[in-house]
Amino acid sequence: IWKRSKLYVENYLVFTERPYELVGVVKKLRLQGIAIDLCKEERIKRADLLKKKETFACNSDIQKIVDYYSEKPTDFEGLCSELFESLGYIAKLTPPTNDGGYDISLTRGGEKTIVECKCYSIGHKVGRPNIQKLVGANNVVLADKMIFITTSDFSGAAISYAEEVEVKLINGNKLMELLHKQGFIEKEKVKINVMECQLETADLYPYVPRDIYEIFFE
Fold first, then answer.
1. pLDDT of 184-215, one tens digit each?
2. What global pTM score does this model have?
């Protein structure tokens, strides 16, 4: 991608040694209604976007959510963060390498809440020890509320203990209800237009050698 980039548009040839400039040109041309085929990177972006949209399509169930995040379970925390933000919270994810017993810190109206997220298969129930770990974390954080959210469900012991220590539980069924209610589930047939696949400057970052990163992007 860092060789001279070329673009053929009708009878014209556009080329540059700075790919990010070509990205901007393509975007402007497409916005003017000029048809330009997707490049290799845009086809990859389209495939990823299609997979995500199909996961959150109107006929989705919780298993599709589990399958989608199975390779990167930590990305499920990002989904939960977005969900809580849609509910009016200010959400902050904890660093994935620093497991302090919770994944998200929420604030709303001066009230602080900590959240633990687990993307488990449907048959893998969250047990009491998981809830205890969240409570233990709160002995340090001293949040006003605690929430445990999972794609699966909770064991009887976990539910009883959560009631004692006032931890709010959100299982897979409740999660799907919230995703529907907050507009995360596509209500129409999955469609992707070309502008959704359009490369942005940030999409080029993974292709930039570290030693020339600053030259191109800073």
1. 887 666 677 788 888 887 777 776 666 555 55
2. 0.69
Residue type, 127: G
Instruction: Render pLDDT for 2-35 as a digit per residue (tens, 0 to 9).
Output: 455 667 677 777 777 777 777 888 888 888 888 8
pLDDT of res. 161: 98
Same domain, 23 and 102: no
Distance CA 42, CA 28 (A): 16
With contact defined as beta carbons under 8 Å apart, do 169 and 162 qualify?
A: yes
Looking at the fold, whether 79 and 163 belong to one and the same domain comes out as yes
Residue-wise pLDDT for 60-79, tens only, equals 789 989 999 988 888 999 99
Give the structural domain span for 101: 73-181
Tokens 């939960």 locate to 80
